[in-house]
Amino acid sequence: MPVEIRELIIRAVVQETKKPSEGGAAPTNTPNSEQIIDECVRQILKILKAKGER
Question: How many helices (H) and strands (E) does the chain have?
Fold first, then answer.
C-alpha cells in the first residue's frame, strides 16, 4: 500500500557565531542579500519555464 505524504515540516536552528574581525571590514567575495534573491528568482523562473514546456 503506497504512503502519501501531504505535509512536510522542516525545522532548522541557526546560530550565528561572531568571530572577532581582524581588519574590521567584511570580506569582499560574499554576495549580498539582493544578489542571492536575484539568483533564486532566476532559478525559480527557469524551473517554471522547463515545467511549462513539458
Answer: 1, 0
Q: Quickly tell me which residue has 515540516 as its cell.
A: 9
Instruction: Phi first, then psi: give them for residue 49, nearest 5 degrees.
Output: -65, -45
Tell me how far apart the alpha carbons of residues 48 and 51 are, in angstroms, rounded to a whole number.
5
Cell of 32: 549580498
Residue 44 and residue 36: Cα distance in Å, rounded?
Answer: 12
Residue with cell 514546456: 53
- pLDDT tens for each residue of 9-36: 888 888 888 776 665 555 566 678 888 8
d(CA 31, CA 28): 8
